[in-house]
Amino acid sequence: MTENVEPDIEVRDLVAHYGPREILHGISMEVRKNEIMVIMGGSGSGKSTLLRHLMALEHKTSGSMNILGRDIDSLSMIEMFNLRKKIGVAFQSGALFSSMTVAENIMLPLFEHTSLDRVTMDIMVRMKLEVVELGGFGDLMPSELSGGMIKRAAFARAVIMDPDILFCDEPSAGLDPAISSALDDLILRLRAALNMTIVVVTHELESAFKIADRITVLDRGNILFIGTPDEIRASSNERIQKLLNREPDTEDIDPDVYLGRLTGKEEYGGVEL
Amino acid sequence: MSESPSRPNSFFARTAERVGRGTVNAIEEVGSGGIIIFQSIFWLFAGPRYGQPVRFGAIVVQMLETGIHALPIVIMLNAAIGIMLAIQGIYTLKIFGAESRVTFGIAIAIVREFAPLITGILVAGRTGSALAAKIGTMRINQELDALHVMGINPIRFLAAPAIFGMLIIIPAVTFFSGAVGLVAAGLYVNVTLDITLLSFFEQVIDILSVDDLMHGLTKSVLFAVLIAVIGVVNGASVTGGADGVGKATTRAVVQAITAIVVTDMIFAYIATLS
After folding, report:
1. In this model, does residue A261 exceed pLDDT 60?
2. Could you report the predicted ipTM of this complex, rounded to two decimals?
């Protein structure tokens, strides 16, 4: 991996709040081109909040974020739309549109952002379905798919525009080990085939160590450690060892932070579209 | 861990807090409704320039769902209302021996009042609730986030087609509702008073003015905006899970029907001032 190239993602002193509560306390990190960066941490550590900020889904309190060399604060609306076309996201729940077939879900970004004809779009969708091993399932509705198939369909939709960056939120959550391992292989295949930078949020240690070039460990809204899987394993830091040994850290769970994590908002969420 | 904000202890303080919170939420929702209308108009005209066009196909789908699929229930309800008005009108006018003048009351009541009101309430219960449930479910399933990260503006993609689809189809359905109500009333009058359907409609045309027709249709336009915006706002404010979607759906229906009836009253007052 080349280390002196400009990073695809660069975060400096990121501070984020949910309501009055500060969740991220000045995060600085970078993700290099074609790297798989895994973000780990316990419950309420802020990893989902960090991911939502990296995806520009939340407004930060302070700090700066450069995505693909662009400071996202300086982008106009059109520039932001264009930047988003270069980013793919595979959500934890899949977030497939329940009123559309699997193929229509995957085709949606092409339909909205390109002027390709229907035949070409069909071919591209079929190719991506083959990549995620869902060939022949395009006509099914999301409700007819298993959990693992939904995640793979979400990956197909996330990479249909051949993005430069792929964000994955808990790709193996709720899946059995065999399917989880297959998804890890899929992430590695996608990186190799599409030459993408990939950021994965997960709490699965095996998965993290299998796919990561580097791992960022978050703890109570701060970065505890950034390093390769071998460096993390060798760390003598007590809290990292606790995480690696899967020791519960219940005193860290702030009910308000937990509520915010579950709902994405405070008690009254407000209107958000 | 920092302490949670303390809760007021006395009944009055708690009540004041609830009232204050409710007021702030209501103001926020009204403001959000205004923003949704403004942004929908913005995306309709400026969308193509930003690569975010409001799709005509999505508007047609909304029109089909709101109007065409609702026709059976629209026909049934408006026929029932027309016959009910004829029954009550004849019963009342019989006291004065003026049953033959029943057409006057029926025509004015249906075209100015009942057609837009019944259509509005029907669409609020049927489509407004469905819109709130759809957007609420999309919010808790992260589908709105998915739209954002795909570079698809959710107001352009979801709210604008709903608003413009309803704006076109609800006045059309209201016009149709009025016709159905008048035909049903005419048939009842024909059977009861031996006035032919042709004579009934000749009287209706004599009685009604363009102003009466526009009165009903203008209200239906206002109802369309209210139903769509209230559905979108409630769907977009869902928190929690399925329970939250259920509450938002109920709120959308109650708020939309309340808004329709109150707007109807205010509009009727203003329109008849001169």
Report:
1. no
2. 0.87
